Structures are given as structure tokens and as C-alpha cells.
Hints:
Shape: globular
Strand content: 15-25%
Radius of gyration: 22 Å
Order of helices and strands: HEHEHEHHEEEHEHEHEEHHEHH
Distance between the termini: 75 Å
Number of strands: 11
Amino acid sequence: MKRKYLLTISAACLLSIGSVASAQTSFNVVHGSPAKHVITVEFVEPWMSCVQKGAGDKLSFKYFPSGQLANLRELLPALERGVADIAPVPIGYYSDKLPLNGVSMLPGLGATSKDIVTAYAKTIRSKELSDEFAANGIVPISVMAFPPYQIVSVSQEIKTPDQFKGKVIRSAGGAMDLVIKSLGGSPAAISIGDTYVALQRGTADGTISALASVDGYKLQELAKAISTNGSFGTFVNVMSVRKAKWDAMDDNLKKVFRDCGEKVQLQAAQNLDKSGSGLSKRFADAGVDMFAFSPEQLKTMSGKLDVVYQDWTKRLDGRGLPAETVLKTYKSNF
């Protein structure tokens, strides 16, 4: 009788443990950025910490950073295949699948990361942009945008509008290609992870990038000159959840995901904006020519970059997409 009682207790304990385990949802969090890159330390990991604190034992994360399961260009397919449940999707690498969301990368819109994040976070709720995420089976929950991109020149200095002509400049694709072409350069599709080697070997003469990304990939070690007041667009990452996983979550957990997304996107933007002057000084101390375009030069480039809006809307309108409507909405949110 005593043995039977003990077995009953043991079975009850196992059932209890099993019910706790089944109540906990596990998520594969995947990204392709280095451990010390700002996407890691300012976006992905702070969001995970916030969610873990808010959700407690309702969930667990299996974390695969630094391209362990998927590199930057493989993150959206990883979500689609179920390899990843959560990933920061780099919009510029998926202009074929998220073309209208490329509006977030256009030049001359927003002077800071906070400006861009605030405007894009509003615009992403529009039917046109949210439909693109839905079509790819993912749900956007948070956005990260770098401060306006600068020109980083390596083989030869690019310090005037005329010096862009004939230069091969690394591009993340999408709207960035249009920016480089409008200034007279030739875009080269090179992922940020391969940029150091490409610049070192002379495959490209320079790149357009945020100072935080320059530092994250140590491009300042190769740079001759970097601008400080250009506005050559930006790059946006959207923390996204696989829709099948999202649909299985309860409303409370969804709220934690979104609340943490809003908190972290603002915090990351503020930190990125603050870090700019410090990085500029550090690069200058290391021998990089940190320069500012003159007002006349900025005006000249602004005139050339106006063509980017026309090209972007014309190209997407030609595919039957409401690019002009999206651009108008995005501009109104600044």
C-alpha cells in the first residue's frame, strides 16, 4: 500500500512537472551580427532581457547570434523555414520581398536615429507595409534604424560631390543603390560582413555606412576619410516573429513582446545618436580624416538625391505597388 502511494505521488509530480514544461514556450532567436555590434548590444539582447523579465518562466530563449544558424542575408528565409522564431530582419537585403518597406532607407529623411525610428514605427502599421510582412509569414514588433549614413572612403578620398564619380561603393541594395548611382558612383552589392575584406582588396573604393557600423566591423582601420554631416539614407532592422509562433502566443505574452519592442527601439535610437560624436573623435584620433561637407556641397548633393525619390517610386509603381502613397505617408510621420 505504501509503495502504491509513493508511486501515485511520483506520477502526480511528473504530471505537474510536465504541465509546467508544456506551459513554457521556447523561442529560437537568431541573428547574424558580431557579439559587440550595436545590433547585438543595443537591440537584440536588450529586447530579450526585457521580455525575459516581463514574461518570467512563461518562455525561454535559445540564442544563436553571430551567424551561427543564419547570416544577415539568410534571416528572412530562416524565419520562413522555422529555423528561427525571432530575428532582426535587415530590410535592405530583402528589397524583393519587402520592397515598400525600403522607404525607410531613403536619403534626406530624418536627422537622427530617433527621427527615423519614430516615423518608420508609425508607418509600419499602415496596411501597405504591414501586408508585406504578413505575406512573408512574419510579424514586426520593433524597429532599429541607424543615424543617417556617411561616406567612408578608402582607396581615394571622397570629400566632394564630384569625387563620387566613377567610384565603386559598397551597397546593401535597395534604395542605397539609387543613392550611389544618383551621385555618380557604381554600387557593389556586398554584405556588411564582407565589407572589410572587399575594401582591403580594393574590390570597392568605399562604403556608405553609419559610424556605429563602421566601428562594429572595424572599417575605420582602412578608412582615409569619413563624412560627419551627410544624409545618404540609413539601414533598418525589424525584429520579427514567425507568424505561426506568434499566433500560438497568448495576448499577455504578445503585449510583453510589443511593449519591450517599443521600449528598446527608443532606447537604442537615443544611444546611437549619443554615440556619434564620441566615435567621430575616436576615429579622428586614430588618423581618419573626419570632415564635414560645406553648405554648398550639401545643397548640390540634395538636388541629386531628389532623383532617388522619383526613381524609387517609379520603379515600384511600375510593379503595381503604391510607392507614392507610402512615401507620402512616411514623410508625414516625421
